[in-house]
Amino acid sequence: MYFRILKKDLKRKKTMNIILLLFVILATMFAASSVNNITTVLNGLDYYFEKADLSDHFIITLADNGDEIEDFLSGVQNVKDFRREDQLFFNDTALTKNGKKLADIGSTALLLPIDNGKLNYFDKDNEILKKVPEGYAYFTGCLVKGADLDYGEKFQLNLGDTEITLKYAGLAKDAFLGSEMFNNPRLIVNNADYDTLIADEKVRENNRSSIFYVNGYNSKTLESDLSDIPTNTFSKGISIVRTSYIMYIIVAGLLLIVSVCLILVSFVVLRFTISFTVNEEFREIGVMKALGLKNSSVRGLYLVKYFGIAVIGAFAGLLLSIPFGNALIRSVSDYMVLGNDHTVLISIACSIFVVLIIMLFCWRCTRRIKKLSPIDAVRSGQTGERFKKKGLMHLGKSKLGATGFLAFNDIFSSPKQFCVMTAIFTVCLLLIMSLANTANTLSSGKLLPLMCTQESDAYITDTDLIAKIMTGEKTYKGICEDIEKKLADNGISGKVSSEAMLFPTLEANGIKASPIFMYNSETKASDYTYSEGYAPKYANEIALTKQVAEKLDVGVGDKVKLTFNGKTDDYIVSALFQSMVQMGETGRFHESFEVPDEFITQVMGFQIDFDDSPDKKTIESRIEKMKDIFGTKYIDDTDGFVMTVIGKNVKDTINGVKLMVIIITAIIIILISVLMERSFISKEKPEIALMKAMGFKSRSVVAQHTLRFAIVAAVASVISIALCSPVTKLCINPIFGIMGAINGVDYNIRPVEVCIIYPAIIIAVAVAGAYFTALYMRSIKASDTADI
């Protein structure tokens, strides 16, 4: 009997049951794949780092002072052991194919001979690279996507006076510099090809680089112990390497948030479906009780039905979660060696969890069956009594037309079910808005203060110019003068300056630190933003980020010992600020601080302020002209400069997640609109028939039902717009906090996109789903009033 009743029920309510099944499938698929991916990425970092044999600390020097650093490390008691990896560095102009630049990297790349490798590097199959054929090169990191080469394709590498032709050997995975946030790819080549290049005297003088992998007896104090290291480019612990992979964890986390939202939506839809079914089937329930069936038997009938749907949906979701999860994590696995031996067990556990939650929810929602009695079947589910008004609106006082009045009155008469729809639409829309605000902010000038840079008319970030300072080919002032002269020769008058990055050593309370210090003699320290204290007024005052201050256990007004250029003096911490440079470990000097020109070896780029204060249109035309003058495309306005510093890949990753969420949201809203409207039609069939009997045409009734969804979507849009900013800060500020902006950021909210485009998409999708479902009402005739 049970199965015969269930079979008829499933046939009679195919649309509702199919949609409910789809929600269970989606919920299971997202839950299993997201939990699996987060587990894989989080555990995968430790797994990857262990297989790659990463050290506790890393030192990079883009100069020929490797022997000096090696001698220093040998004298540090806390250094347990260290490995030295000699290689060459170059910029993207050195790589060409058929006379054209191979890839736009926008940062320094490295060339490593495989025999010099002190880490384990892996191929695409996660096998350790032990040999590289002569004449071939493996690519790591962003160079893989940027170059877009097929196996065996030839390209040229030109360093100094030597050019060699290499063939692309494929992808290699580099645990240290392989993440997109580092953006420092490597070419791994045969030693014979490396020897050909190093034989060039110019290469030996200008392109030699060394990386040191240092292990300590006490890894917690190792960074402090190594703070006195001779001038270097990079000296950080493994924590910053771990942080560089944060985007992959964020993507997996965002997908998990989507999964949680989808599961909540599924439960809400399930509750509505069960409640609607129980209310609609008062006759069947009353008759079953009249025949002697107990409450537990009647509830069991419904539980069996939803258990069947839950099991089928969970099983289908489990099968789909494996390829779906692999597709989502493919971009991560291109850069990491991931290991997760419990994928199937986690997926099964998530599926069982979804089924159990659904069954508990069903048990709670079927409690109303206890209240129904055989007499309800006689009374058609009504007691005949009502002690309050059904709605707040009055037809006589309404200025709306019949369609508008009925639509609004329906919403006010059944606020609970329409509030549920509003909540679902609001959550979906807020998710899209938050991701959009994040992506827009990552390419916005609003992040400029966090780059420790003042606003200028144009920025040059060409790696060839920056490399000349790094190699000592030209001095910082010399390049600034060259840029100014070149601009003047082409009829453009302007002042050139840069945010120089210096590497002093700080000491306080027996703790040492080596943050990057920002310095620009052409700007004033008071022009920058600080969260506490006052801007440095004198040469012996400095500003620190909260991360550095906490590491040294100092605050505003405290003194620290600062060592720079071989000289140690006391400096006063006058202010605290936040920065995203080097994950927030930053400081700032006063503009009167004396820095010898030869000590400026790294700059953020070259800022250009035109003398005639041109308008935006003129600036844009000059930027295009400057690209031709300097022969580079790395000349940007403020927004472009921020995106270059942050990394285009970061924004692209967020945009990819945003697009996926928009598609998923559209699918969810269509499913909900179809399910709810189909339920409304089934419930309101007698009323619809009565309206037709009174002369209403089908299109009027369809318009009334469609308008209800438009109103709900519009209300959800208004609520979402109001909550957009606080929800974005609540969800996304922790992400920027990891990158250094612990006080949050000023988000770039584009009103047209956030307040018009996305709400319009949600409203259009909801209306379309409701409209096409409401067309079913054409089959309802005036004679169906007999069902009242």
From TrEMBL:
Listed under GO cellular component are: plasma membrane
InterPro entries cross-referenced by the UniProt entry: ABC3_permease_C (IPR003838), Membrane_comp_ABC_pdt (IPR038766)
TM spans (from-to): 245-270, 303-324, 344-363, 659-676, 709-736, 756-777
Q: Which residues form the ABC3 transporter permease C-terminal domain?
A: 257-374, 660-780
Where does the signal sequence lie?
none
Subcellular location per UniProt equals: Cell membrane
Keyword Cell membrane assigned to the entry: answer is yes
The yes or no answer to whether the keyword Transmembrane helix is present is yes
Its placement in the membrane is given as: Multi-pass membrane protein
UniProtKB keywords: Cell membrane, Membrane, Transmembrane, Transmembrane helix
> Which PANTHER family does this entry report, sorted A to Z?
BLL1001 PROTEIN (PTHR30287:SF2), MEMBRANE COMPONENT OF PREDICTED ABC SUPERFAMILY METABOLITE UPTAKE TRANSPORTER (PTHR30287)
| Protein name as catalogued | Putative ABC transport system permease protein
Q: Which organism is the protein's source? A: Ruminococcus flavefaciens
